[in-house]
Design the sequence.
């Protein structure tokens, strides 16, 4: 079965999945609006946690948080499930597709065959939509790509159950019980207030305080770790800021569009 699902490209995967899934149910909501209501603007620096052998610098909250905040503020119910059994995960996905329900999935990007090699690394918080299956092919709407694509059952299982940090564990999600009357204005105010609370947090590793802390730390890295490690740490920051997950810089543009 192949669901009639409209694919729209977006700057960021979770924003795009949220926007496209809600659009399927008749709620027209743009990527900047998803990001703003979902309080996606964020910063944290975790020097005690390493990913790709470098401290974690994140310009967004944990995967799923944007969509969770969005549906909560819009009073929409969202179903999320994780699985330890690959067969159960596959059976559940197929059952939803047969019901005509497109499903969001959290996956690892490293083994996605349609991703360019330069964007492949062990990042397990990517999001896409499965909207159909025919023979051995699953129909995929990955919002960071220009057009839809397909994955074999083996390929899809591999990215759904990849190992490592933030392992997706077959996670699947989809909205349900969407109210006919949604108070967008109220949701916008709630989203802005939460973003301000996060970015102005007194915690030294979060928001504006975290940005200032990283700025001070960078100048100490060459002396503390040597130039090679310092260069690697700095490259990781730039990579996360400019490329991965839209990049922190990209998030600022999206939030600016939301404020407009």
Sequence:
């Amino acid at each position: 079965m192949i669901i009639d699902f409209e694919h729209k490209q977006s700057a960021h995967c979770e924003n795009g999945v949220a926007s496209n899934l809600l659009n399927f149910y008749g709620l027209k909501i743009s990527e900047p609006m998803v990001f703003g209501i979902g309080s996606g603007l964020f910063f944290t620096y975790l020097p005690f946690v390493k990913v790709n052998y470098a401290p974690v610098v994140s310009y967004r909250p944990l995967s799923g948080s944007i969509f969770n905040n969005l549906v909560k503020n819009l009073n929409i119910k969202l179903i999320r499930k994780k699985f330890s059994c690959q067969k159960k995960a596959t059976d559940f996905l197929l059952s939803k597709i047969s019901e005509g329900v497109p499903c969001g999935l959290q996956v690892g990007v490293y083994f996605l065959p349609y991703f360019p090699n330069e964007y492949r690394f062990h990042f397990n918080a990517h999001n896409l939509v499965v909207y159909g299956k025919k023979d051995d092919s699953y129909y995929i709407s990955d919002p960071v790509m220009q057009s839809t694509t397909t994955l074999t059952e083996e390929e899809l299982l591999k990215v759904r159950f990849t190992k490592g940090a933030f392992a997706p564990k077959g996670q699947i999600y989809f909205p349900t019980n969407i109210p006919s009357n949604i108070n967008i204005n109220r949701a916008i105010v709630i989203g802005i207030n939460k973003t301000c609370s996060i970015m102005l947090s007194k915690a030294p590793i979060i928001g504006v305080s975290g940005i200032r802390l990283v700025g001070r730390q960078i100048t100490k890295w060459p002396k503390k770790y040597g130039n090679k490690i310092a260069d690697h740490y700095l490259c990781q920051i730039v990579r996360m800021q400019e490329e991965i997950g839209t990049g922190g810089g990209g998030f600022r543009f999206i939030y600016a569009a939301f404020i407009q």
Observations:
- The radius of gyration is 19 Å.
- The chain has one domain: 13-259.
- Residues 13-259 form a domain with the Cathepsin B; Chain A fold (CATH 3.90.70.10).
